[in-house]
Amino acid sequence: MNMECCAYCYAEDVSLQTCSKCHKRKYCSGDCQRKDWNKPGGQCHKFYCGKTGEYGRCFEIKPAGEKGFGLYAKRDFKKFEMIVAERRLLSYDDFKRNPYIFSNMPDSERDAFMNLASSTGQIFEKFIMNGFGDEGNIFVHMSRVNHDCFANTSYAHIVDRDVQIMVAKKAIKAGEEITTSYEHLLYMSPSVRRSRLKRKYGICCERHCSICSNPTLDKRAEELNKAQREFLECLLEFSRKNTGKSELDRILKMGSDLREFYDEFEVQPSPYINLFNMLSMCCLIQNRKLDMARKFLDLSLENGNAFTGSDQEASAVTEALLLKKIVNGEMNFPTSAFKEMLSEIASSFIL
Q: Can you give the residue ranges of the SET domain (predicted)?
């Protein structure tokens, strides 16, 4: 794709005007700029003006060897900096409802979709290989982001603006490929993860992934997965039985070890938030170490503030705020309810 294109309709080889506020985002007409400024239908640039990277100036699409094409940084990005905020082009749900949807799309948008990766060229396969979420959402730029188990970004769907954002999970240098993880690193064993990636996307992770192609990191990832599963199973047992003080100490130690794994692999904020919330619940169940529970919840909210937007994070942050009120004595909550809550959360993460 030409880096000089309209940010709304993706038209190329046209005269462009620049947003007068951020001086970065470009449009082929005032009409495209107006459509992009508000929701629905646009990026909601009114909110993201000057807050996110722009195609051509901050990142670009270019060849990525055997992987086809990829998204690459044109400048340095700091940890938690927003790389892109993008409206979806269309979704598989849209296509199922209206198979003739392509006839109503501008040529530039239709061409952007048809140029996405596919081994057979079939439209259905393009949604499978390039779509995000259960809806199979397609994006002109984000659908070019390749997989890495040790990805350098996280993404979230902002429901109220119907926009997807991608945020740097760690510092990214100019020239570095921007990657995301297509499958769960924490909750899926390496062999299962690699098998799913091969079957669904045709990805041979052992050849390209910074974890799977490195025997030392791959072994650590397997240890992380084992520690995650053992921690969740221990939480389930803790929530279902009357346990002693030593069991809480054991859980806190396991949680501390798991946090070190998270730090090593620079996981996105949501696992941290869930970890700290669950550890605080364990303290509340036994009504012990409440000062430690407060610290856990402060850390949970700190991570929530670093990356906001997705339903999962928003739900976990709301949960942390509720738990903090209980720890501070502002609300009453029966122990049985804590146990039920803990069991439900732990069970949801055991695949």
A: 57-183
